[in-house]
Amino acid sequence: MFSFKLDDELESFRHEVRSLAEKEFAPRAAYWDEHEEYPEANKNLLAELGYLGMLVPEAYGGSGLSLIHGVVFLEELARVCFNTALVGQLYLNGPAKALAELGTEEQKQRILPGVVKGDYLIAISISEPGAGSAVTDLSTNIRKEGDDYILNGTKCFTTAGIEATHSMVFARFGDSKGARGIGAVLVEKGMEGFTTGKPERKMGGCGVKEAELHFDNVRIPKENIIVEATPYSNEGFKRLMSSFGPERVGNAGMCVGISQGAYETALAYSETRKQFGRPIAEFQGIQWKIADMATQLHAARLMVYRAATNLKNGFPDPHDCAMAKLYSNEMAQRITNEALQIHGHYGYCRDYPLERMVRDARGFSLGGGTPEILRNTIAAQCYGRTFNQRRS
Ligand SMILES: Cc1cc2nc3c(=O)[nH]c(=O)nc-3n(C[C@H](O)[C@H](O)[C@H](O)COP(=O)(O)OP(=O)(O)OC[C@H]3O[C@@H](n4cnc5c(N)ncnc54)[C@H](O)[C@@H]3O)c2cc1C
Hints:
Blueprint: H1 8-25, H2 29-35, H3 40-48, H4 67-80, H5 82-91, H6 95-102, H7 105-117, E1 122-125, E2 141-145, E3 148-159, E4 166-173, E5 182-188, E6 194-196, E7 210-220, E8 225-227, H8 235-242, H9 244-272, E9 274-275, E10 278-279, H10 284-309, E11 311-312, E12 315-316, H11 318-342, H12 345-348, H13 354-362, H14 371-382
Helix pairs in contact: 1-4, 4-5, 4-9, 5-9, 9-10, 9-11, 9-13, 10-11, 11-13, 11-14
The structure holds flavin-adenine dinucleotide.
Flavin-adenine dinucleotide (FAD) binds next to strand 1, strand 3 and helix 14.
């Protein structure tokens, strides 16, 4: 039965991660943003302390912890340093988790131990210049040649595409259309014909950039096929989509974390900032903002924890994930904005963390499925058009 609260072990885990994050990551949170620099030192520390392999099964050198551990971990990192949380998501709930679920035994043995040590970093590359929300319009193509496969195409917006040692690339096998024929392959840094474009300069999450990936007749050995597809079936695509649940729950967990950080900062500021001869916390207009923030944060956290614990065959329920991500994405934008408002002009200044939090939170509503697409998914389920089940 769902208990509505974390057990003692998870609370003590949260405490441990919070102490680490406040001591090691909070002091330089502004630095990675200001310098637009990948937080390599933080990644190395997380690897050294064994956190990068938290969700990797023990058979491949990880700790085999549950999805809820990953969520609490990302929440605590995002509370103080969003860029470090983004790195955590790549290693925990994102592409590494997808490879652990979908990869062949040989791929897992070859790659996951390197992920645990922080030597390897896997990126996930789906979006293309002409295929964003419409994933099934992708045109990156793979065809068989002898024992190998040949990959051609261009991807965009791949998070850490430049730093990654391996990229899980969605591609179309043969001349199919729509979801049929979509599978995934592993492209390794240094493969002939594989190049990356310049990193995208963006509004938030500036320490972990997206980039274009170009494939010009890249020869892929058959050992690097993750999900093979045929032009006649959408089974490969369905398997790939099923691996999105943990990524969405991680994204929503980071929204809860960044909102928690903004809420705490605003609460503390409102108690010390005086106007009209008294702390602004004494004005009902400010108290109501704080009350709304606390309520929305509470609701989002419950939705995310429910999504992270209501698992079937190891995967979260897609309906739970879509609703948790949608609500948390929009909540994070509202809360970071309100927290900035409570700070007045200081919130708008670079010397305070609020304007960075507003910018960082914005990207959540684009990556991993926009709110519009999530609403489409939820509505389709409500009407019984997906997952063979109507929700009341
Ligand atoms: C920070 C960040 C990290 C990312 N990381 C990755 C990554 O690692 N790998 C990767 O492959 N991609 C990544 N992406 C890309 C992301 O997945 C896409 O931005 C997203 O899928 C939307 O695609 P698009 O930007 O092309 O927008 P479009 O699909 O062109 O959409 C434009 C607008 O139209 C709306 N829209 C589109 N279709 C519909 C519809 N049917 N109904 C209603 N509204 C609709 C969208 O919601 C959006 O508001 C990342 C994006 C961001 C911002």
